Amino acid sequence: MKRARIRFAGREIEFINREVALKYIEELAERGTYPVYVVYGPEGCGKTTFLKQAKAILEDYSYHVVYTNPLAHEEKEILMYTPSIHDIVEEVFKSLLDPYSRIVDVSIKIASIVMRKLRKSRIAILMDDIFQAIELDKAEIYTKTLLNLIEYPSGDYEKIVVLVSSSEGVSRERIGRHRWADFYILWNMSREGFRKLYEVLPDPKPSFEDVWRIAGGNPDILEKLYRNNWSVENVIDGFIRSRKLEHFIASLSEKERGILMEAIEDPDTIFKRLRESEVQQLEKKLIEMNLIMDVWERESRGWIDIPPPEKDTELGIGKYYAWQTPLHREAIKRILMQHNNI
Ligand SMILES: Nc1ncnc2c1ncn2[C@@H]1O[C@H](COP(=O)(O)OP(=O)(O)OP(=O)(O)O)[C@@H](O)[C@H]1O
Ligand SMILES: [Mg+2]
């Protein structure tokens, strides 16, 4: 199987591990998706990278792929497509003044022209992080528009795959209530996969166990640790500042802070006390701020790759809720402790 080339910590490497997810994409390539598939997971768990690898697999299966990531740092990654549809993309781009400003609409347009012009073909639309770039109402509209591509195509297609990625907790609540999309969780990397990624980085470095305990398999945190000379303090400080976590904690009631302290020990506290209105409010906020996720049964087909263990208190993973990573939990814990000492 072709492995996508990935940029990681300033080097070019091959896509690592995630064997279950890759098999799943092959399965989707065989049968297509219905309805829209939303790949949802902790921030930095590897969604963008996974979609890039999915593009490579789908192309192996003769799909014409349109991939867009409106938030990509590099312009060449905002829109990527299979060379077979180059002329169509050119044509669409020529007809618009500033196609990059409306890249999601433009990609949908490209897909629908491909359907019309290349009849009976295989087509895949991969939309990375589109919900983060737009307002929530629009996210719902886009999901419906994507479903329309499947249900009411502009031309006959042989197979279609529509994958959208998101790390926005709110999108799951808003979009998940319609029949337009099914959600699948891509969790942080398994221990085995994460170890392979850790091995890519040069010595000297902390032991694998130490890194695993704070990153919990999250490749973005691994990269951040490496870039900060392995200073956990720096990475946590940066996280606290960028999320304004001090303000967040200060805005909570004493009771909410108490519940949060318990959730640091065991995130399932939230589930057990969900009848209390303050717990409900807190749960919403934590999900909205991408600090925790609600996770479902590990056996279901709702996972793209290997699910996390049923419970792992060391990593902050419960049966019903999980901290996105141990570092997220650690950051909150520090601010809570400081707050209590004021
Ligand atoms: N399977 C993998 N093999 C090799 N590198 C990976 C893999 N998954 C992720 N990475 C690396 O980890 C980093 C974070 O991954 P990525 O950007 O895909 O996460 P993300 O879930 O899209 O993050 P965000 O929530 O910020 O959009 C990237 O630098 C990427 O190169
Ligand atoms: Mg991403």
From TrEMBL:
InterPro entries: AAA+_ATPase (IPR003593), ATPase_dom (IPR011579), P-loop_NTPase (IPR027417)
Location of the AAA+ ATPase domain: 33-186
SMART domains named in the record: AAA
GO MF, one example: ATP binding
Any one Pfam family match given in the protein's UniProt record, by short name: ATPase_2
Domain of life of the source: Archaea
The protein's name in its UniProt record: ATPase
Organism encoding this protein: Ignisphaera aggregans (strain DSM 17230 / JCM 13409 / AQ1.S1)
Native organism taxonomy: Archaea, Thermoproteota, Thermoprotei, Desulfurococcales, Desulfurococcaceae
